[in-house]
């Protein structure tokens, strides 16, 4: 077992005991900075209007809502929160935690049955919901299942209990507010219950404390270079730790946050709000980079860009950085202000990371999981290695358990950010937490400089009959470089029915029909063109296979233009996909 050396602190930061302290600290340091930008669409033909909320106003809304909840005896209950990303979600989340309550963030993308299961399993007594969830909430009320006694809407909607009215109620209760603000908070108590991605039977409820979160925010502040003048796009869902902790981190740094109108409006919104920092999943970053490449190719500027990259790399050896000037036209397509993208949750194509950095946009990736609140390691602009996910966070220790002859084993971690366990699941807790170490289920290695390289999920590894291990993620990255590939995954299937243990490497590829039509003149609605598409893809798989050892070569390829089955956090449900292919 090998551990990482302690990292030097690059930035100053405050370590808060709880969320109330963190928000108070931000309001004290950045009272008049814009914390959130709310957009209100006008009637047809009218321009939208924007509401800018300062850190001081955000703190007041939290304290007023928390006061009203406490006055009504609701804050010491388990409070579930569900809606799309919005300002009222954040106010509700922090109001409950600032009053020492327990909050249960729920995924708005869940089918009703899973939503109901999470409500029942969490024993939530209060449900704060957005109007986008109204139909599911009404169905829950009719079912009579679960322990919810109080429903609070984030919008007015003519309902008696709503967030705007409660904020107003708390504003007019100064004595109760004094009690609320002086309520002792136990930062070490379990006060956040987060359900992991998965089906009803598989989703586990992760138990976190406020200090788990604040310690991770602290380590992020010591690692990454976020400015009080930055504007962040809250794209990742708040119910996911990467989304909510990323948002909390932005608040701790004094940065502003705007909201996306939807995936198809993402680029437009980045330009609209002049976004400078963006937290997102790899699939999105890779998609944006592919669009940039396609635009450059369409404009016939490939050689110009290649020359620009060579020139800027040469000048940077002498401390001269002119990347943002040289590539201004490209950067202007992304609003001209985007300076940093932070990605995690899955492996990313190193070419996309390098591509963004070549243009003058800092692109870094991290590694983590909900059980680690969530960040275990991360790159920054000073500490990067191609293919790695950086070094361990300053207050986190990382090791490789049971490494093989190549130093590859399970990545394990311990530190103040590690969960307390899975709620009402002692067996899973004992499997995951061993002697204080979180067993991540990810395989990887640590190099001599302390950089962590993730090879793949332990459960995804294809173990061949000859004992060789194939890491699907390694091959998936090669396949994702093909310009027409929308998504793909690599897996093992038996060579024949006689021996289930004799696996061969297979891949399923989802291609982009629009690319095939516009770039290659192939229309997948025509049988003869569809055959050519399949032939092209299989030929490319043969080329990729030829570059790898024999045991890693792809022997079966499945081709489709239909999206894969995914979780609400955009991860492919691998076993469900494999089951559908058998």
SSE layout:
Layout: H1 19-29, E1 34-40, E2 49-54, H2 55-71, E3 78-82, H3 87-98, E4 102-105, H4 112-122, E5 126-129, H5 134-143, E6 150-153, H6 163-171, H7 174-181, E7 190-195, E8 205-209, H8 210-223, E9 231-234, H9 241-253, E10 256-259, H10 266-272, E11 277-280, H11 282-298, H12 302-316, H13 323-326, H14 328-332, E12 340-343, H15 350-359, E13 362-368, E14 375-378, E15 391-392, E16 397-401, E17 409-414, E18 421-422, H16 426-432, E19 433-434, E20 437-446, E21 452-457, E22 462-463, E23 469-470, H17 472-480, E24 485-494, E25 503-511, H18 513-520, H19 527-546, E26 554-560, H20 574-581
Parallel strand pairs: 1-10, 3-4, 3-5, 5-6, 9-10, 9-11, 11-12, 12-13, 25-26
Antiparallel strand pairs: 1-2, 7-8, 8-18, 13-14, 14-15, 16-17, 17-20, 19-20, 20-21, 22-23, 24-25
């Amino acid at each position: 077992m090998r551990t990482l050396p302690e990292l030097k602190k690059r930035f100053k930061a405050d370590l808060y005991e709880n969320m109330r302290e963190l928000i108070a600290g931000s309001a004290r340091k950045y009272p008049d900075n814009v914390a959130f930008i709310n957009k209100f669409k006008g009637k047809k033909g009218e321009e939208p209007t924007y509401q800018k909320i300062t850190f001081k106003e955000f703190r007041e809304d939290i304290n007023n809502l928390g006061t009203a909840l406490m006055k009504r005896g609701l804050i010491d209950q388990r409070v579930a929160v569900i809606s799309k990303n919005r300002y009222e979600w954040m106010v509700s989340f922090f109001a409950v935690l600032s009053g020492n309550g327990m909050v249960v963030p729920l995924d708005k993308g869940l089918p009703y049955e899973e939503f109901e299961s999470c409500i029942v399993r969490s024993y939530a007594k209060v449900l704060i919901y957005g109007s986008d969830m109204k139909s599911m909430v009404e169905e829950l009320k009719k079912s009579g299942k679960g322990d919810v006694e109080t429903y609070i809407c984030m919008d007015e909607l003519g309902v008696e209990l709503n967030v705007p009215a409660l904020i107003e109620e708390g504003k007019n209760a100064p004595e109760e507010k004094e009690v609320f603000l002086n309520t002792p908070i136990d930062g070490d108590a379990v006060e956040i219950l987060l359900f992991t991605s998965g089906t009803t039977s598989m989703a586990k409820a992760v138990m976190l404390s406020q200090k788990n979160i604040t310690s991770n925010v602290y380590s992020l502040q010591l690692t990454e270079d976020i400015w009080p003048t930055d504007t962040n796009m809250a794209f990742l869902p708040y119910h996911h730790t990467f989304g909510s902790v990323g948002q909390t981190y932005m608040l701790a740094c004094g940065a502003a946050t705007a909201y996306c109108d939807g995936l198809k409006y993402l680029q437009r919104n980045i330009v609209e709000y002049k976004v400078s920092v963006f937290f997102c999943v790899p699939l999105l970053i890779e998609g944006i980079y592919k669009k940039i490449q396609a635009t450059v190719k369409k404009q016939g500027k490939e050689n110009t860009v290649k020359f620009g990259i060579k020139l800027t790399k040469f000048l940077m050896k002498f401390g001269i950085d002119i990347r943002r000037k040289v590539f201004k036209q490209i950067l202007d397509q992304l609003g001209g202000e985007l300076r940093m993208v932070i990605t995690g949750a899955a492996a990313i194509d190193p070419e996309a990371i390098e591509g963004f950095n070549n243009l003058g946009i800092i692109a870094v990736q991290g590694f983590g999981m909900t059980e680690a609140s969530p960040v275990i390691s991360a790159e920054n602009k000073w500490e990067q290695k191609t293919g790695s996910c950086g070094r361990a966070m300053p207050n986190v220790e990382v090791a490789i358990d049971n490494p093989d002859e190549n130093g590859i084993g399970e990545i394990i971690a311990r530190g103040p950010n590690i969960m307390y366990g899975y709620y009402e699941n002692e067996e899973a807790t004992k499997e995951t937490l061993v002697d204080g170490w979180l067993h991540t289920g990810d395989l990887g290695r640590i190099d001599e400089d302390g950089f962590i390289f993730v090879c793949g999920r332990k459960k995804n590894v294809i173990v061949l009959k000859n004992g060789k291990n194939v890491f699907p993620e390694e091959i998936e990255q090669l396949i994702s470089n093909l310009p027409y590939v929308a998504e793909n995954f690599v897996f093992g299937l038996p060579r024949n029915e006689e021996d289930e243990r004799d696996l061969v490497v297979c891949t399923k590829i989802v291609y982009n029909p629009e690319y095939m039509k516009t770039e290659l003149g192939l229309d997948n609605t025509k049988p003869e063109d569809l055959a050519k598409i399949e032939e092209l893809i299989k030929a490319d798989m043969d080329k990729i296979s030829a570059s790898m050892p024999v045991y890693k070569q792809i022997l079966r390829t499945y081709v489709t233009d239909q999206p894969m089955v995914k979780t609400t956090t955009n991860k492919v449900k691998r076993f469900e996909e494999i089951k559908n292919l058998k």
